[in-house]
Design brief:
The structure is a single chain. With about 290 residues, the protein is mainly alpha-helical. The chain is built from ten helices and five strands; from the N terminus they run E-H-H-H-H-E-E-H-H-H-E-E-H-H-H. It has a three-stranded antiparallel beta sheet with strand order 1-2-3, with no helix packed on it. A two-stranded antiparallel ribbon has the order 4-5. Helix 2 packs across helix 3 and helix 4 crosses helix 6.
């Protein structure tokens, strides 16, 4: 009986960034001291003819209305929650709160605590875009190699055993109380909002963007069979020393998907369904009906 021949790749697993964010809502930018925020687009000013006398002057466009406002945290028995540190000095406190939520072992295994809030905001915004740069990830890459299989027709596809790489992370996500995670998000929300505006979106509301990204990921179709992949050829005299980083989806429609949707496709259908169920649970708690 023919058995597919497994091949491997050490391509870093972007899904780690996505799913850890799904649970703890954190991220930012490594070495943000050198980070150049995305600039808001400059308005295009076109010449217009003078308006006739007496013509009403139109009002300037208003700031987009907030669609999914985040309620402040419920007051605590001892006079309310402690004041938040400044964004620049938030790493220590955020790390303590995440450790309480996820356990020290999980924080050590999965997360990068430096610049946490900034990492989360940048990662969330990037998940619905074409690329999610590795320097923005709030978590460590998934260990082991991304594996593929070659069928009898010579076509390579994602190996079903590849999903084992993500099992510890998915189990960790299932173990986290979503209500507690969202309560922490509400508690820290002013920091997320500040980081989002500093990223280049003044006047925009971060939780609205979060809901957009959640909807985008939830709508990712679940493949009915392992997606085909192709090792991209690099022409030149110098041999590539890292060919495992060059796998792409063979189907142009899949390869053109956002970074976040491609992350979900790589974890396997069973894990994808569980993660999307968690995403739906989170959305119900952060979005207004």
């Amino acid at each position: 009986m023919y058995r597919p021949t497994p091949r491997t790749s050490r391509r870093p697993a972007l899904i780690t960034s996505a799913v850890v964010f799904v649970v703890v809502f954190v991220g930012g930018y490594y070495g943000w001291q050198h980070f150049k925020p995305r600039q808001a687009p400059e308005p295009v000013i076109e010449p217009v003819a003078p308006a006739p006398a007496g013509t009403p002057v139109p009002l300037a466009p208003a700031t987009p209305a907030i669609q999914h406002p985040i309620d402040p945290p419920a007051p605590e028995a001892a006079g309310g929650p402690a004041p938040l540190p400044t964004l620049a000095e938030s790493d220590r406190r955020v790390g303590e709160l995440l450790t309480d939520l996820l356990t020290p072992q999980n924080v050590l295994a999965f997360l990068q605590l430096d610049g946490f809030v900034r990492r989360a905001v940048a990662t969330v915004d990037n998940l619905a875009r074409e690329q999610a740069p590795t320097l923005v990830w709030p978590v460590k890459p998934t260990p082991e190699r991304f594996t593929v299989q070659r069928g009898s027709d010579g076509v390579e596809s994602i190996h079903p055993d590849n999903q084992r790489r993500y099992a510890p992370l998915v189990l960790m996500i299932d173990s986290v109380d979503t209500a507690q995670a969202v309560a922490l998000y509400r508690r820290l929300y002013p920091l997320f909002q500040q980081a989002y505006e500093e990223l280049g979106f003044p006047g925009r509301y971060f939780n609205d963007r979060l809901v957009q990204v959640l909807d985008h990921l939830i709508a990712t179709p679940v493949p009915t069979s392992p997606p085909a992949v192709t090792l991209v050829e690099v022409k030149g005299e110098v041999t590539s020393t890292r060919p495992w980083v060059r796998y792409e989806f063979s189907d142009p429609a899949l390869e053109s998907l956002s970074a976040g949707r491609k992350m979900l496709l790589r974890v396997g259908p069973a894990h994808q369904k569980r993660l999307q169920a968690k995403l739906r649970d989170i959305r119900q708690r952060v979005a207004k009906p």
